Amino acid sequence: MKKWEEYIRKVTPYVPGEQPKNTDVIKLNTNECPYPPSPAVKEVIHNINSDKYRLYPDPDATFLCGAIADYYNVDSDRVFVGVGSDDVIAMAFMTFFNSDKPILFPDITYSFYDVWADLFKIPYETVRVDDDFKIIKESFDRENGGIIFPNPNAPTAIGMPLEEVEYIIKNNQDSVVIVDEAYVDFSDCTAMDLIDKYDNLLVIQTYSKSRAMAGMRIGFAIGNKKLIDAMKAVKFSYNSYTMNMPSIYAGAAAINDKEYFEEIRDKIVNTRTKAMEKLKELGFSMTDSKTNFLFVTHKTKPAKEIFEALKEKNIYVRYFNKDRIDNYLRITVGTDAQMQALYFALEKILGK
Ligand SMILES: *Cc1c(COP(=O)(O)O)cnc(C)c1O
């Protein structure tokens, strides 16, 4: 080994769901929205004068922060935007998780949290979800240097009632508590209304799922001004121009089109209800999904075999070869037509 090799940061990266090059597949593996973004997005991007690309974008992304602030009825100095919520969460880890005490997150959860903790050398401990995969609110009642959990949780799809979220925030007022609400628009458990009540609460959301804009990379955090100012200071010490110009304008246009947002969200929720019925008929059981995906297990056929057989038929779902969940599949809710194709393929695979 060369001397300089010793000084390379050793990390085990997060492995995102596959993005197949073949466009002929039914992609139900990364929780993207099956519908296009608001037509306002197409229009706004079409109308940007490309001469403007000579210039750096607004480092404060004022226009986008303003639109998000209006939507949630908060002051715009309480909004932080980033390149997808992954960027926002990474910034929050850097900003808030600097104590010697371990940060806490569930043992079954978004598999990026331990990767960031390792990257930033933050000590962490996981808290065990119960046998039905529910987060136990009391499990966070111990010394910690910060807390993060998604609500609804991924990949379990379970939503925690707001009273339980509040219990965790209230009992941990010496730490910053981050609620990762990537899927909250498909549920009714947002902690957004608690940000005035608790100055240690940071709520993070994304455009990637419910707003059909994973490719634009927009995420945001809302919290009290002290938290947001601290995140901005870290961001401006790292990269001032995270948000590119089209994302700033397209993000504002999308959040202003509430009607379209509600239309596609409702379609997905309807398809989800039907999918739960249909998959039960096929011998699957599942958690009560409050997200745009289903977390399912089959009574006889191993998840890994179903995953591989579906892939063979060009239908991609997500399989996690991990402790406690290695007999489960995470299936994104697609369009009704995509789901029909899924049921048809499953009937074949299961010999129905
Ligand atoms: C998808 C997802 C994110 C990140 O999404 P971005 O595309 O980076 O905005 C964060 N947390 C959870 C739990 C997710 O599922």
Short description:
The chain has helices at residues 3-6, 39-46, 62-72, 84-96, 113-119, 162-170, 225-235, 245-256, 258-281, 303-312, 336-349; strands at 26-27, 79-82, 103-106, 124-127, 147-150, 177-180, 201-206, 219-223, 284-286, 293-298, 315-316, 318-319, 329-332.
Strand percentage = 5-15%
| SS field, number of helical segments | 11
Mean pLDDT across all residues, rounded?
Answer: 97
User: pLDDT below 50 for ≥5 consecutive residues: which ranges?
Assistant: none
Shape, per Cα inertia axes: globular
Number of strands: 13
| Computed CA radius of gyration, to the nearest angstrom | 21 Å
List of distinct ligands in this structure: pyridoxal-5'-phosphate
Helix content: 25-40%
**Order of secondary-structure elements:** HEHHEHEHEEHEEEHHHEEHEEEH
**SS content category:** alpha/beta
Kindly report how far apart the N and C termini lie. Answer: 56 Å
Sheet having the most strands: 5 strands, mixed
Please list the strands of the largest sheet in the order they lie side by side. Answer: 2-8-7-6-5
